[in-house]
Amino acid sequence: MTVSMRKIQAGRGYDYLLKSVVRGDANMxxxxxxxxxxxxxxxxxGRWMGSALHAFGDGEIKRGDQVTSQQLQLLIGxxxxxxxxxxxxxxxxxxxxxxxxxxxxxxxxxxSLTTEQRSEAERQIKTEESVKPSSGVAGFDYTFxxxxxVSALWGxxxxxxxxxxxxxxxxxxxxxxxxxxxxxxxxxxxxxxxNGAVMQADVIGVAATAYDHWDSRLGDPQLHTHVxxxxxxKSTEDGRWxxxxxxxxxxxxxxISEHYNAVLADRITRLFGIEWEQRERGAERNAAWELAxxxxxxxxxxxxxxxxxDREKDRLVDDYIERTGHRPSAARIIQLRAKxxxxxxxxxxxxxxxxxxxQWRGRAQEILGTGAVEWAKEVTARPIARPxxxxxxxxxxxxxxxxxxxxxxxxxxxxxxxxxxxWAEASRQTMGWRFASAxxxxxxxxxxxxxxxxESLTITPPELVTVPETxxxxxxxxRFRPRHSVVFTSETLxxxxxxxxxxxxxxxxxxxxxxxxxxxxxxxxxxxxxxSETLAGIAVSGRQVDLLVGPAGAGKTTAMHALKTAWTKTxxxxxxxxLAPSAVAAQVLAEDLGIACENTVKWLHxxxxxRAQFRKGQLVIIDEATLAGTLTxxxxxxxxxxxxxxxLLVGDWAQLQSVDAGGAFSLLVSARPDTPxxxxxxxxxxxxxxxxxxxxxxxxxxxxxTYIAKDRVRDGTTDEMMDAxxxxxxxxxxxxxxSILVAEATDMVIRLxxxxxxxxxVANPVGDIEVNxxxxxxxxxGDLVITRHNDRRLHALRGGFVxxxxxxxxxxxxKDGSMQVQRLGVDVGGTVTLPxxxxxxxVDLGYAVxxxxxxxxxxxxxxxxxxxxxxxxxxxxxxTRGRESNVAxxxxxxxxxxxxxxxxxxxxxxTVLYGVLQHLGGELSAHQMVLAEQERWSSISxxxxxxxxxxxxxxxxxxxxxxxxxxxxxxxxxxxxxxPSFGPLTAELRRAESNxxxxxxxxxxxxxxxxxxxxxxIGAVLISRVQKAAQARQGKRHQPQKLVVGLIPVADGxxxxxxAEVLNELADLMEERAMILAExxxxxxxxxxxxxxxxxxxxxxxxxxxxxxxxxxxxxxxxQAERRRTLGAPTTVAQTLDAxxxxxxxxxxxxxxxxxxxxxxxxxxxVEQRERVLA
Length: 1175
Known about the structure:
Elements: E1 3-9, E2 47-49, H1 69-77, H2 98-107, H3 115-131, E3 137-145, H4 148-156, H5 159-183, E4 187-193, E5 196-201, E6 208-215, E7 221-230, E8 232-234, E9 241-243, H6 246-251, H7 253-272, E10 276-279, E11 288-291, H8 296-301, H9 305-324, H10 330-342, H11 353-368, H12 372-380, H13 396-413, H14 419-429, H15 438-455, E12 457-458, E13 488-489, H16 491-505, H17 514-524, H18 529-541, E14 545-549, H19 556-571, E15 576-580, H20 583-593, E16 597-599, H21 600-608, E17 619-622, H22 630-643, E18 646-651, H23 664-671, H24 687-697, H25 703-709, E19 713-716, H26 718-734, E20 739-742, H27 746-763, E21 770-772, E22 778-780, E23 784-787, E24 791-795, E25 801-802, E26 807-813, E27 819-823, E28 831-834, H28 836-842, E29 843-845, E30 848-849, H29 851-854, E31 859-866, H30 872-878, E32 882-891, H31 909-918, H32 926-938, H33 940-954, H34 956-964, H35 970-978, H36 982-994, H37 999-1008, H38 1018-1029, E33 1043-1044, E34 1048-1049, H39 1057-1084, H40 1099-1119, H41 1133-1174
Parallel strand pairs: 14-18, 15-16, 15-17, 17-18, 19-32, 20-30, 20-31, 31-32
Antiparallel strand pairs: 1-3, 2-6, 3-7, 4-5, 6-7, 8-9, 10-11, 12-13, 21-22, 23-26, 23-29, 24-25, 26-27, 27-28, 33-34
């Protein structure tokens, strides 16, 4: 991705931008801002960008002006006006460091707690405090990097051509920033709903600083610009400074990257006439568009650590020749390369662009065979370029065709999608088109996206109420829903899911008698009671599509083997068919079941050619079913149903998901109340880890403390953690323990593989021939490698054909580039020769693996490098591979080759792992997303926030009048009305009114109570005073509070009829939902109901009790309370007030329950007494 995005923390989070800026005077006589700093050691100072610069001071800052360090400190460091130093809205929050907050709360714990209670309380405190940042978000660093071929050309060209390329890059960045201001950037206002204020609002634009950098961390040419967008934005509606809507920024990151690529490509072609071509980057990476004349060898020279290793190797070879007088042998050269690999990665050095360019030209000349400057001039000599397109040059039928292709491409990979998914794909599919301007490209891509939406199926529900014009955008859409938030799917996917659901309810499939399954599970396989009961449920269910769910280490494999035995006894030999989404998983299943198994794609391929079919009575076991796409499962289960066979999907919803449109397995699990599931974990040596692994599976943050307490977590920089994980893994391997080394990203895996290979060569220098692999590494005799492509023509005597994901030991490398390999774990008959072409394209080093490769593997120890981008599924899979030990090495930074912003100081293993557990990588099925969207927009969290936001606007004039007549001076009134606390103050006045206070009389009383001359925020002081003065009146003589669902103060008083009607509709919707939630909780016997007492038997008492339950249900829905806790710990003032109301509802409900129970007991005693008298 050529545009990355990261948050910058307030304080000194911006320092990294200034580290390489030129010190001293530049050649100010040079009018070109690029060549002006050509000979200075470093990079040019920052420049201002964005449409909001006029809002600072009196408009002194203009686009393109130089950014001073003081201005950067004021705006990004402190959130102040960079000209005047005045506040821009609310100051960035500053909290004590997380460790101090934890220590203070732990010190306040009751001394009467037991050791176990204290440990549990400390874990809970650490979990809660780790979520809270110590400083606010100051901005977002968008790093725009030109494609590798452009950097290579730019790096060796003459200064004039370099300036032209930089200018094209700058213009493309400016055009994309303008696009973001029009389509992405917004703020939020109103009452909080879920993760932010409920209403999106327009802004005047953004203020950004742009810093150019020339090279990567390794000193290769890498032209890139850090565009830091300030988090402070000014809303167009009321002119107040607020924060950016970060969610919108994150969701648009990928399409912004694709759009920048295309806009830059257009500019480069218009400037130089150079064409572009798409180049493959390997099976696990997306193809990239590069400049056609730039050779791949030059790109590789300038874009990987391999070139640095080669240069260090060459230096060592030269030293060797100088020392010995002769060239080293081939075997010795391999050893020297290993030594070069182990050399410490260099720190970033600052050079002038002149020095860098001189060095780059020398390196390029060796690759090009000619002068680099001359080559660049030839490449950029403007030929007759093909005509560029205007928006009206593209026919509408072409727009429609591309839109269909876009939907088809997105539909393959996702079960649901949004606007930005379509935009990204439309940009990819039009990347080969060259446009006359960014506006033309944007218009055409926009038309394709609109047409793609028409071809998609909308699953986001329509507005539940029609909000007034005040709350609508110019295009008529409601501001209570973020722009571009509508979710789409396709009829194809929904229909496939419908068919899968129907087949899971079809009870006509073949079965096995209960006595057969009991005999097998008790006498032949000796399963646990849980395993036996689960298998019996599957064997006799008759379900066309059945499920077997189990966490890692629960014994799914053992259970499947027993089921195979029982099924074969009933339905005969060949009645079991084993399938899996990958060839490696199919081979593992084959070894577990003792039968030939196949991957799903291959089986369907054979079926289409009449060479494979299901038959009546068969059991089709699809293992690792979460990795299978929805359409694949639909087709396989349809074929099985037609043949009279039964399908069993085996997997775990918490593990890795399909790379295709998926979610079907989780959908089927959620649709059944009786899903067969194994819950007893058998894999781990330590008893505590069995429970802890299940907590990881469910994302329970408290378990982080357990792993830390058991010394299973390390933390440090990325380099430190990769080093620690590698050394621990290497020690285990040396001791003969089966171990696995897992890393999050491909580049980490490559680095670890290089390190492992280098150590292997130093320890065991065998072989004198090495071969280049596709990822830029090398392999020679003795190396561990992994194959990345299924090839049935390459077949070993044992273990079958060469599969994607198989691991091998290299036993010999031939001069033609082919290699002889031995399958790992197979001592005899596992040898095969891989052709040179296969080796060059489909073989990687295999010491370290990603989580996707690790799934399905069981070893003694697992060593896992964890970063902030790790998903819960990846973490869970990686941390459950080891029987004896699973250790997480948590990287606290996010280094890359472009000098990214540092992580906040309070980052530690706990904070990173908390984020990992919240980061779900799996997608919902289309049906599940339909329900999720309905829940989201009909929740009391959403409706309540809309109600209170509309109330504030509807009653604003009334509250303004009340404040003006409260006794405040005119200046004080102006301060309150302009303050961010005005909104919360009006909410507090509405609460007072719901408690039956006359606000117009109350406000002057609280104003007069004490002077306000020294108050920094008069509105905040008045809020506190009103809260104390207008407490809810308790007792039977007082009227009940006027609250919607027992929580939200009713908006009364004068307002427009339109506003009143909308508020009444919202109140009715909330009351209806709260009662539905209450009744559902009673029906499901929800655990949180225990504190409210038993449901009364009498109709009147039950009605009153349910009325109180509905308040607690509404609270839980509004604040997303955990299932196991009735209310949870409030985190805001508003939630604290609502929690108090919910707590009172709990007490009233319990009293009603007890009163009804006592009345029932009294009635029963009276009846008994009468019966005794009659007797």
